[in-house]
Queue: 2 jobs
Job 1
Amino acid sequence: MTEELQAAYDTLLAAFGSQHWWPAESADEMIIGALLTQNTNWKNVEKALAGLRRQGSLSLAAIAELETETLAELIRPSGYFRQKAQRLRLLARSVLDAGGLPKLAEKPTPELRRWLLKLKGIGPETADSILLYAFERPVFVIDAYTLRIGSRHDWFAPATDYAAAQTFFTRHLPGDSALYNEFHALLVRVGKEFCRPKKPDCARCPLYSLYREPGPGRSTSRKSDV
Ligand code: SF4
């Protein structure tokens, strides 16, 4: 399985090239974007980030000082803007209260992950995105694209949950944050462009050479491998 995953990574990298994630100019911007991208697409997040940038508020320190209503208006394009404003402000204040990002970066990864997950509105995917892309920790981010591609390729069962899918990748790949960074970004790309929920475009997909169509005699999952 390690070879199959490596082959998938190599194939995607050859097809798409490096994705240069996360698309942010600073750790602050990355963390803000990770929260804003919940339940919306990246185009809407870009509009919200541009609004914050125009106001000189694209930093955790600036966000911590904003009124919630003002922040909500600035991030309105990202959707769920009132809820996100509350959560973003809480996150910004919590980071500052903890001594800032450099102080948080002193924490071991499991402790830092627990700290993030205690914050309202930060679930495993957002916490792991922050750990990987802002703190460069070797934490594999799982999302709906990854779960769909992984189950279709029989890497794990269709109903595999977040934690089990993450264990699958970390068990079969070296603990390398640069590799996890690129692989996650490549899986998102193939998920968006080819591996759609309905009617996946396998014939044009770079991963087709590694795909075995379901059929008689082929097991539908490799549950024991997770
Ligand atoms: S579109 Fe087909 S070949 Fe591509 S990742 Fe999805 S299942 Fe695999």
Job 2
Amino acid sequence: MASGNERKKIDSAKELILKNSGLFRCPVCEQELGLSRSNSLHCSRGHNYDLAKQGYVNLLLKQEKGGYDKQLFAARKVIGDSGFFDPMRKAISKLIWEVGKGEEWAAARILDAGCGEGSHLAWIWQDLKAKKKGFTDILGVGIDLSKEGIRLAAKEYQELIWCVADLTKLPLQDRQFDIVLNILSPANYGEFKRVLKDHGILIKILPAPNYLIELREILFKGTDKELYENDGVKRLFANSFQLIKDQQIHYQVFLKEENLEHLIKMTPLTWNADQEKIAAIIHSGLKSITVAFDLLLGKKMA
Ligand SMILES: [Zn+2]
């Protein structure tokens, strides 16, 4: 998606934010944030947040110490670009299209809460825009706690708004979004409800018990981690949103040898594993891996 590639990233970010003014609120005092000529967002009480030259805004009050997750997000980008997530992304896009097409969602606003390096949102945004009917003027906003993730997103995808922020205290005004996405990321249902419009929907993707089962078997054989269930997460969702759909997305992915290492870097399963187990995975000759997600679709309860 290279449009206006000569323009500075900060200028296209400014233009997007101006076009959608009233979206952000100050994380300190909750007043509306406006954009000033000096490339910063400000509220009426004088709190200021600069736009980064890479084209994102940082609305996090306490900065996280980064560094480690840069590798993780780079690995996720490689895996994502290999098509690993495409059936899952396609399922989300299809669902949004089905729900939104009758409701005049040409200018629908989508928030990806916990967007990481932004590739899921960018893919879905582009897929929806490419559909023949509707979604011609949709807005995509990606938020993540990780500055490294957001920097990568802003660098790669200029036509969306990217923001470093805390999901438990979203710096967004009430009732701004038609769709909130929450893909393989922790949730804050209270905040999701607050920023959704009354007709809004939440789509959550969570790992299903068979997700990466081949890795799980090597890493956790004979321990209580070998089996994984997501019932608790589903119950929490259904307590907060009216559950409309619970859909399984299961498929096998053929793995190129070099992608196995990226996959190992990407998944939290391996983060505390000993080198011996990691080596066992690398030398396992694994050619294909099980991908299994559950997709939950919820409506805001009255
Ligand atoms: Zn303020």
